[in-house]
Amino acid sequence: MLTRRDMLKAGALATVPAVLAGGRAAGAPAARRAAAAPFTAPLRPRRPLRPVRLAGHDFYRLTSREARVSLLPGTTTRIRSLNGRMSPLIVAERGRPVVIEQVNELDVPFAMHLHGGHTTERSDGHPKYQVEPGGRRRYHYANDQDAATLWIHDHSHHTHAENVYRGLAATYLLTDAFERRLPLPKGPYDVALQLRDARFEDDGTLVWDAHGFEDRHTVLVDGRPRPYFEVAARRYRLRLINTSNERLFELVLGDGEEFTHIGSDGGLLPAPVAVRKLALWPGERQEIVVDFARWGVGRRVVLNNAAPYGGEPPEIMRFDVVRPAADHSRVPERLRPLPDLGASAVEREFVMAFDPSTGQHLINGKPFDVDRVDVRTRLGVTETWRIVNADTQFGIPHSMHVHHDFFRVLDRDGKPPAPGEAGLKDTLALPAGSSARVQLRFTDHPGLFMYHCHMLGHVQMGMMGQMELVR
């Protein structure tokens, strides 16, 4: 199979993550050492940022700025941070709006996108509203959607991939009364974890190479390299968020132990699914419940990646069961029913492909143009989109992320979706040569919104379109 390295040598300037196990063993010495010595860094759950509670809404100020933080043991690393942190956490409540004032103290633009958020055009992170260095902007989130695990990241034009890689990402948990009534694990037993990969020099310097996805051999969980996490012998709800640019995680617990899949991008699934392996692609969220009581106090359980790059260990993190605990939680047989989107009145097709003659990634043969509207659709009208990954020659995976509203997966290559894709989605991975049909209906907010591959290098090389939602 022709890899991106082969194409770069041939002169094609592109970002082509052929996400396969058994790839080239490469990486800086520090990355190899970090990968070879897992479970030396402790992981502690993040405390949510505290808002200023005003009449009718919660207010936060997020400042994008450079900061030095401790990522690898014995070193500090300069990152692009939000409030000086890696992976900050916001917890919001349905029906209570959030206003975030974004202050940009970087020397590059920043456009804040609430990934999975149902927002107006002006608060969606469209590049035309990006905050230039020294500027500030307020983003308004109505939080008028069902509970879900969302996340915030940069969506600026041409600088987003590096910004996200260098740390500009936050977790945004939206809760609601329906979810709180369910007997799922809550409080300290409901934990959100950001997963990403990185490459470091010996002195802790974070190395950015737009074409170097195969060299990012250090896996970070909430900014900690392959950490250990102390848990009680009871059920935990784990919300897993892939904030990598191009990395696929195929999650396996221990030697293939069973765990319970309960949610994806748009929140809870209709029903839980027992699984032994779960894919987590860039931009996706997967929610699982793990009962650590089955192992008992004193046992250790490793979360592995079944699709590591060549030469790196598979470990992502280790759970150390250190104490007993009462557990009144359970996973109900039914979670959240799906909305009825009705019959589709419009059908569209989106073909995603790499063009080796230009080094661009295209949708329907075109690279992104901020001055061009690719799709016009009416609010309230249900549509079916057929999404095709036509990159059979190079074996390149793609994904489709749609802003503004979630979608339902109707089928993959003509077959019904797996139970784990039965819920609402906003990011859908497509292996080379595959296709899928999804159904969606945009509501409430007219304006310009994006759809694009969430392999961020592919977006940087043109794989994005613009849709206008009209009344």
What structural keywords apply?
471 residues, mainly beta, Immunoglobulin-like, 7-stranded mixed sheet, 6-stranded mixed sheet, 5 helices
Distance between the termini: 47 Å
Task: Please identify the structural class as seen in this structure.
Answer: mainly beta
**Which CATH C-level class of the largest domain is it?**
Mainly Beta
Q: Total helix count?
A: 5
- Strand tally, please? 32
The CATH architecture of the largest domain comes to Sandwich
The share of residues in helices is under 10%
The side-by-side strand order for the widest beta sheet comes to 12-11-10-14-19-16-17
- CATH homologous superfamily of the largest domain, by name? Cupredoxins -  blue copper proteins
Q: What would you report as the Rg, rounded to the nearest angstrom?
A: 21 Å
Shape: globular
The total domain count is 3
Report strand %: 35-45%
